[in-house]
Amino acid sequence: MPLRFFNTYSRQLEDFEPRDPAERKIGIYTCGPTVYSRAHIGNFRAYIFEDLLQRHLELRGYKVHRVMNITDVDDKTIRGAREAGIPLTKFTAQFKEAFFEDIEILRIKRADEFPAATDQRHIVRMIEMIATLVSRSLAYQADDKSVYFRINKFPDYGKLAHFDLTHLQSTGRVKHDEYDKEHIGDFALWKAWDEEDGDVGWESPWGRGRPGWHIECSAMATALLGEQIDIHCGGVDNIFPHHEAEIAQTEGVTGKKFVRYWLHCAHLLVDGQKMSKSLGNFYTLPNLLEKGYTGREIRYALMRVHYCAPLNFTWDGMEEARQALARIDEWLARLRETAGGKIDLRKLDLQIGEQFEEALDDDLNISAALGFLFETIRATNRAIDDGALDSAAARAWLNWWEEINTVLAMEADEAARPEEINAMMDARAAARLAKDWRRSDQLRDELKAHGWEVRDTKDGQKVTRRTGS
Ligand SMILES: [Zn+2]
Q1: Measured in angstroms, how far is the CA atom of residue 69 from the centroid of ligand 1?
Q2: How far, in Å, is the centroid of ligand 1 from the Cα of 232?
Q3: C-beta of residue 38 within 8 angstroms of C-beta of residue 98
Q4: In what helix (H) or strand (E) does residue 259 lie, and over which residues does it extend?
Q5: Which residue in 111, 112, 96, 133 sits closest to 215, CA to CA?
């Protein structure tokens, strides 16, 4: 069966045909964080889905080049910096750092490039693209000095979201400043400077200002991946207006189809409700680490449901994740014992466990893939109990695990390291991030008491079992 994905644009499952099938190179663009606060677990659900996508494509022999943008200038970042009384770059730097820490804890592969919207090269490109759109009457400068995209001039506008523009006209809430626009749905490409922006701004043919959020992605995606990209991902809340706007701007400039496959990750709910600060069910990664869960447990809990279906996050679900991983750990230990001796995985070439990969070929059906994994665990455990699994078979299954773990990234850091120690390591990473040095030192002492030595290196903390104590 070929790889296939649900394309939001066609609303159909489509066989995957990359732009350049011979080279097997794929360009993926994923909308990254806006660095005005710590990302929440709903964001990470989408990033973990994108990680699963990349890892599976790589397992299938594709060479993936992935770009994830960092939005480090917009209304929220400017407001945050103003309220904190510090420069914008200083304000956003702390959340960029936190984001990179979080993705490492969650074992999310780093993108090949993380372009920042405030990078001068990209600002130049954004201005060039806006100028082209203005020259083609696809954009105009309004009385408020901002530049807007003229959606009535782009007939395909609304096709991704399957959105009727007349609906937008009748129900859109009109803010005072939006009377300057020709159509309520026209979106800002360039926002004219105002006092609230302080010292944030760039010179442009339309005066001092800053780019709109949507044009950032169009400029960076085409600069780094070319005029047409294979796969563009994001959360469902990015579909409209953000991705719709990306299509209009990019195709308005290039005249070519921008994206071949649009993949969107469904919402994350907490106890069946939308996550919100006012409901007290809003969680960041450190919030979960503080409760004693590890990065891989959280990764499992956020990955296990098909990306097109809403994921309901619950504490029971976290416990299930913990148990599922414990079963995997125990299974691996039994297989290793049965396999005996030193395993040379390269010498094994048995075609087993294909159903796991085939499930992922089918629009990343992770729940079916995990279902197959646990069926396998049950069957092989039974065979070990009955003395019916020989060492060659055990090695073959271990070999298979090595392969699927390149996609899952769910093996314990060190086979011998207990979950309790991992939890303390993660808690310590979170404490260091929060610059809580007292807690960090306390955890180092606790680890020591448990017989583990922790060192801080430039690549993060490293832990080793203490000898002779
Ligand atoms: Zn974007």
Answers
A1: 7
A2: 9
A3: yes
A4: strand 259-265
A5: 133
End-to-end CA distance of the chain: 55
**Residue 178 Cα, ligand 1 centroid: separation in angstroms?**
23
Residue 343 scores a pLDDT above 50:
no
Token duo for residue 218: 């169009």
Q: What is the distance in A from the centroid of ligand 1 to the CA of 357?
A: 29
Whose structure tokens read 């299938």? 60
Tokens of 394: 């055990």
CA of 71 to the centre of ligand 1 (A): 9
Q: Cα–Cα distance between 22 and 305 in angstroms, integer?
A: 32
CA–centroid distance, 443 to ligand 1, in Å, is 39
CA 457 / ligand 1 centre spacing (Å): 34
User: What pLDDT is attached to residue 13?
Assistant: 98
d(CA 101, ligand 1 centre) in Å: 21
- CA–chain centroid gap for 295, Å, is 15
**Is residue 245 packed enough to be buried (19+ CB in 10 Å), middle (13-18) or exposed (0-12)?**
buried
Residue with tokens 């299509």: 247
> SS3 string of 319-354?
HHHHHHHHHHHHHHHHHHHHHCCCCCHHHCCCCCCH
Task: Enumerate residues with CB within 5 Å of ligand 1 (an ion).
Answer: 31, 217
Whether residue 457 is predicted with pLDDT greater than 90 in this model: the reply is no
Pick from 265, 172, 258, 169: which is nearest to 219 by CA? 258
pLDDT tens for 247-282 read 999 999 999 999 999 999 999 999 999 998 888 899
**DSSP letter assigned to residue 240:** I
99 neighbors 35 (Cβ within 8 angstroms): yes
The one-character DSSP state at 118 is T
Cα 217 to averaged position of ligand 1 atoms, centre (Å) = 5
pLDDT of residue 165: 73
pLDDT in tens, 114-147: 999 999 999 999 999 999 999 999 999 999 999 9
Residue 274, classed as helix, strand or coil, is strand
Residue 462 has pLDDT above 80, yes or no: no
Q: Are strands 268-270 and 273-274 parallel, antiparallel or unpaired?
A: antiparallel
Instruction: Give SS3 for 252.
Output: helix
3-state SS, residue 445:
helix
Q: Quote the pLDDT of residue 166.
A: 67
Position 412 scores a pLDDT of 85
What residue type is 238 in one-letter code? N
Assign 460 a pLDDT band (cuts: 50, 70, 90): confident
